[in-house]
Amino acid sequence: MNSSSRSRQAGFTIWQWMVIVLVGGFLLTVGFSLAPLYINNYTVRATVQALQNEPELGRKSTQEIRLAVERKFDVNQIEAIQAVCRDKARPCMKVEKTKTHLIIDANYEARTHVMGNVDAIVNFDKNRVEIVIPGAS
User: Fold this and answer.
1) How many domains in the chain?
2) Residue 51 sits in which domain range?
3) CA distance 89 to 111
């Protein structure tokens, strides 16, 4: 390498580093704000899907099923969906029971503060399970 090519090579300037740090900081802030929502949703989905393994579920009423699921949410400290559950005007989940199927729909949306006056709303819509009632015809 000659000396003229060495003088043209340079690293990032302070302004370029500041942009990189600001963008990285923003992405970390958003990530740390949204991560708890997704962790809670994973627990909600696991709780709802675990209901498929309960054989006596077909004999319970919809109110008993709703209370059982809400108790499981209490044990797992799921507060985002519990806040909606406590609002009796908008139930947190739909429990429908037919002669052959039990449908539990625990879809919900969660809101979190990101920074300043910016909030993030995340819609979780894969928390629906359809359970075939054994012995039903």
Assistant:
1) 1
2) 12-132
3) 19
The one-letter amino acid code at 66 reads R
- Find the angle CA(25)-CA(28)-CA(34) to the nearest 5 degrees: 145
| Helix, coil or strand: residue 45 | helix
List CB contacts of 73: < 8 A, sequence separation 6 or more. Answer: 44, 47, 81, 82, 85
d(C-alpha 19, C-alpha 23), whole Å: 6
User: Which helix H or strand E contains 136, and what residues bound it?
Assistant: none
Name the pTM for this structure. 0.75
Tell me, yes or no, whether 2 lies in a domain. Answer: no
pLDDT, one tens digit per residue, over 83-130 is 555 555 555 678 888 888 888 888 888 889 998 999 998 988 888 888
**Any domain includes 5:** no
